[in-house]
Amino acid sequence: MNYTTITKFDRGPLARLLTGAGLAAALLTGCHPDQRMSASSDRQKQLYAYCMQCHQIDGGGHKLAAAPNIGGLDSAYVENQLNKWRDGVRGAHPDDAEGLRMRPMLRTLAGTDDIKVVAAYVASMSTVYSPPSLYGDQEKGGKVYQASCASCHGTEGLGNQAMMSPRLAGRNDWYLVTQLHKFRSGVRGADPRDAQGAMMRPMALGLADEQTIRDVAVYLSQLKPKEI
Amino acid sequence: MAEQHPSHESGGIGWQPLARSVFLTTFLGAVIVVGTVLFYIFAGGEDLIARLIPANSSFAGDIDFVILVIAGIVGFWFFASLFAFFVLLYQSRRRPGHKPEYLAKHDHQLHTWVSWPHWLVIACDLIIIIVAVKVWHQVKQVAPPADTVIRVVAQQWGWTFRHPGTDNKLDTVDDIVTIDRLHVPLDQVVHFELQSKDVMHDFSVPVFRLKQDAVPGRTIKGWFKPVKAGAFDIQCAEMCGIGHGLMPARIFVETPEQHAAFLEDSARNASVPGGQSIY
Ligand SMILES: [Cu+2]
Fold this sequence. Notes:
The structure holds 2 protein chains of 2 kinds. Chain A is built from 11 helices and no strands. Chain A folds into 2 domains: 41-128, Orthogonal Bundle (Cytochrome Bc1 Complex, Chain D, domain 2); 132-228, Orthogonal Bundle (Cytochrome Bc1 Complex, Chain D, domain 2). In chain A, helix 9 (173-185) crosses helix 10. By secondary structure, chain A is mainly alpha-helical. Chain B is an alpha+beta fold. Chain B folds into 2 domains: 15-93 and 100-141, no CATH class; 148-271, Immunoglobulin-like (Sandwich). Chain B has helices at 15-44, 60-91, 107-141, 256-268, and strands spanning 148-155, 158-163, 176-179, 181-185, 190-196, 201-205, 210-214, 220-224, 230-236, 248-254. A 5-stranded mixed beta sheet of chain B has the order 3-2-1-5-8. In chain B, helix 2 runs antiparallel to helix 3. Chain B is elongated, with a radius of gyration of 28 Å. The chains are: A mainly alpha, B alpha+beta. Copper (II) ion binds at residues 201, 236, 238, 240, 244, 247 of chain B.
């Protein structure tokens, strides 16, 4: 919906003239779209170029930019989340400062299968582990995780593609804490179109307190599945 | 002789053809620029700028007027000095039978070429200052009484708009909060409170000729009065990071019926926090 209104940036004849001149220049200098997209891996890298500014070249993330590590998430989950951002299901809440940073980036993925291509690229990276950035008891966290979360996210924290539950093993602890808080407050997952969010919200609300959340987050950030 | 100094030969490969082509190019360029400007002035008259970008706020015309006054005055002096420059260049051109000479000028000639233009330029500056300060005062320093107050919160990289809702009071339960979409009533004085969550941004609505920096930690107040209904662009106009260029929003200037429909629609869907699609 509102497809036309949000992409219509018409500022009158001068803007049209400049756009025309720009397009003509692009054609004359041999910047042909199909030429650039001939090889699939080139296109993946080209689309990831914008993501890379915050999520880094290895998908390792950058805490200061509020960008978590994304390498190693499975492509179905990444695609699902990017679609949610595009549709305003995620990252469109006024209190979701980090989600709103991500939101306009979807404007760079406007091609028909851009989201699929970049999701596959993210999935092809391996998970970049970071040492804990919070105080948390991994042992306690592990117990809570296996009791409350493992049924969907797996005992190894590898996620479940059928349920669209993401791999949690190796995710940044600070990111997990922020997201759990967002699920609890409804900043994430409360949109009526968010089926997975609706499942996750009561689970997040079920965690006893702040320290439990941190324990689970630190445990997951250091969890190394046997499969790897 | 001619073999020893080929470049000094009249019509040779020295600086003269170069000077001639520079002269011609500049002259042609000036003709094209002046021609375009004259065309637009005759075709558009006072609405010269409004023909390119619609002027849809009560003060847009005043700001366009200041821009035109400045462009006119500066343009006049630009072309006048270029004209004098090229006339002198032509008069003193190298030609057979004339030797270069140093000309010591007298006081009255200095007056003609330095003093008078200098005083004229100062007079023009005064005109610009008077015209500009008058408009600045009326747009930025005073505001007509508000019909409605909205809050604009900028962040990396999006806009949150808080509308007062049906009670027309901000910070009450019926406030309508939207992302990247601002709804304002037509022909009403809208006051805004501009804030930033992180770095400097700039709330710019080109068709309103409105541009206001948002500074973190401050609430900056301003106003506008839309005079034409429709959907227009909002763009961040202060470089704010990697997503700066991806930070547009839309402003919907609505007739009373449209605005009532927006308020009613938002009130009905208040319990559903769904966001809008990005494209
Ligand atoms: Cu900006």
